[in-house]
Amino acid sequence: MKYDEIDHKLLDELIKDGRISYVELAEKVGLSRVAVKDRIQNLKNEGVIENFTVVINSEKFGKKVSAFFEVDVEPKQLQEVAQNLADNPNVASIYQMTGPSTLHMHVLVEDFKMLEIFINNELYSVEGITRVESSVLLKRFKSRTGYKL
Prior knowledge:
Layout: H1 5-16, H2 22-29, H3 33-45, E1 65-73, H4 78-86, E2 91-97, E3 102-109, H5 112-123, E4 129-136
Antiparallel strand pairs: 1-3, 1-4, 2-3
Helix pairs in contact: 2-3
GO molecular function: sequence-specific DNA binding
Organism: Virgibacillus oceani
Keywords: DNA-binding, Transcription, Transcription regulation
């Protein structure tokens, strides 16, 4: 499917406010409400829009420490390790990366003591992990929700 300037404008507006009404969107892009609704439905059907969701400020919700991990895994155990980690409630996201069976993981915890517990009890105990590197987030300048088309 080809996407035009109007589709890009619709997506930009939805990125700013996923709860904007079809009427408001129609006014912003110069189409009817029905045309906007059809375009958004097409973008959903094509998989361009995967989901409408809420972005939570994890700090204000008690998760004050945000850490990123590069986790190398034995290739034969990659799927099992990835699923095991993905099931952990502290893991916000996890991706397979290029390289020697590497997972990139984002973890949110309440404080540094909980980060230590996560690392020692929930990460290092997973069989198949061969190397772990971690970095703690100091400041966020942009996140995926800020993506511009």
